[in-house]
Design brief:
By secondary structure, the protein is an all-beta fold. The protein contains 1 helix and 28 strands. The chain has 2 domains: about 1-250, no CATH class; about 255-400, Immunoglobulin-like. The strands form 6 sheets. Strands 7, 8, 9, 10, 11, 12, 13, 14, 15 and 16 form a 10-stranded mixed beta sheet that branches. The radius of gyration is 25 Å and the shape is elongated.
Length: about 400
């Protein structure tokens, strides 16, 4: 079963994606209206030569070109193109009526533009996706291929679209509209054609997805949990071919070193390291903690963060009796148990970006990556070796450091 619908914090475009997938048990995709008064630009990214300008009725619904084209929809709409094919229900020119679904206009695309391909794996939803925009900036239309883990891990994985609903498709093809604020709305779902997913890595931090699709017909769709059906009289997309070969490598801060006790129980610290090439603003982030017996409850907040970490830099967060100099101090009444527990780093949306559990856990801990690291003796620490390395396995990423190195490389 696909899990309950979750809104992740990665927007679809510009290097991070907003994704809303929904479960067979019921899901409610994000539904935020796109301002259609904004220009919608569709092109395939190739070099235009011999451009010819053709005016199109201002009331036109949809238009798209063939080989090389740029389409701008607005009050005074023009189509600049070469080798153009148009499907538009509002046109009054000497062209035949467009193919349609229940009378709506159908956008016809020979090959989906390959601009700004993006991909990612969501461990919460258990789905790997790849998407490609039709424009490199501003408002855009996304073609999206989703590979749900519930169908299994064997690739290549092939799917023929023939009347699937969104809750039933294991490989799904979707068209979404994204506004200039990176908020996206699912609009169309494939009802004909086929897709083959050759590779879909199940790693949120690094991975690759390769997929192709042919002869897609995507109809305007009501993605609400109670409906999950075509929009009556809706429009459609016809896409002859699409290809994705997408890699991702998300750079993020890591919990780099932890001391659970020193001269006293409160003589403790958590060091956060920024391994990325740019600074990271942690305003709104939280450092959280779970005890050794907390397998499914809520986090305890050690500290709400407001700091900025420079590229390659460190942020040192100390306990109430930390003997060194910290950038910020835990709140009173919270701290780290020496024998076992877990520390996590959550972004402003509440997503768990990194975590480490250590010592003896009396119940599985939701902040554990792989298996727990060893519990450090008093006045020692657990530290990533090599510095900043994160393979999502706590027991192999962390070693006991006899001499802690707060605010310095391990």
């Amino acid at each position: 079963m696909k899990s309950q619908c979750v809104r992740l914090t990665q927007p679809i475009i510009l290097g991070a994606m907003l994704f809303c997938g929904c479960a067979k048990s019921g899901k409610t995709p994000l539904k935020v209206s796109l301002d259609m008064a904004k220009p919608n630009v569709l092109h395939d990214g190739s070099v235009d030569t011999g451009l010819i300008s053709h005016p199109v009725d201002a009331g036109s619904d949809e238009a798209i070109g063939g080989d090389d084209m740029e389409i701008v929809q607005g009050k005074d709409m023009k189509v600049v193109h070469r080798d153009m094919a148009i499907r538009d229900s509002a046109m009054t020119h000497d062209m035949p009526p467009p193919p349609s679904i229940d009378g709506g206009a159908c956008v016809v695309v020979d090959s989906w533009p390959g601009l700004r391909p993006l991909g990612e794996y969501s461990p919460i939803e258990m789905v790997t996706w790849a998407a490609s925009a039709d424009t490199s900036s501003g408002a855009s239309t996304q073609l999206l291929i989703e590979d749900w883990q519930t169908m299994g891990e064997t690739h290549p994985k092939m799917a023929s679209f023939s009347g699937d609903t969104y809750t039933s498709c294991e490989v799904c093809a979707i068209v979404a509209a994204c506004d200039s604020s990176r908020v996206c709305t699912y609009q169309y779902l494939a009802q004909a054609g086929a897709a083959t997913v050759t590779r879909a890595d199940r790693n949120a931090k690094t991975g690759k997805m390769t997929a192709t699709a042919t002869n897609l017909k995507l109809v305007e769709w009501d993605f609400s949990m109670a409906v999950d059906a075509p929009v009556p009289g809706g429009k459609c997309y016809e896409i002859a071919s699409a290809s994705f070969d997408v890699t991702w490598n998300r750079c993020a801060p890591v919990i780099n070193e932890v001391q659970t006790a020193g001269a006293s129980a409160g003589d403790e610290f958590v060091e956060i390291h920024n391994p990325c090439i740019g600074s990271i603003d942690l305003t709104g982030w939280k450092l959280v903690y779970r005890s050794a017996s907390n397998s499914g409850g809520s986090d305890s907040t050690l500290l709400s963060l407001t700091q900025n970490i420079a590229a390659g830099g460190y942020l040192l967060l100390g306990g109430v009796s930390f003997s060194g100099t910290a950038d910020a101090q835990f709140g009173r009444g919270v701290g780290l148990a020496a024998g076992g527990g877990a520390v996590g780093l959550r972004n402003p949306a509440g997503d768990l970006v990194d975590s480490v559990s250590y010592g003896t856990l009396t119940a599985p801990n939701d902040l554990t990556e792989g298996a727990p690291a060893s519990a450090p003796p008093a006045s020692q620490s657990i530290a990533r070796k090599p510095n900043g390395t994160d393979t999502d396995h706590n027991n192999s990423d962390f070693v006991i450091a006899a001499t802690p190195t707060p605010k310095a490389a391990n």
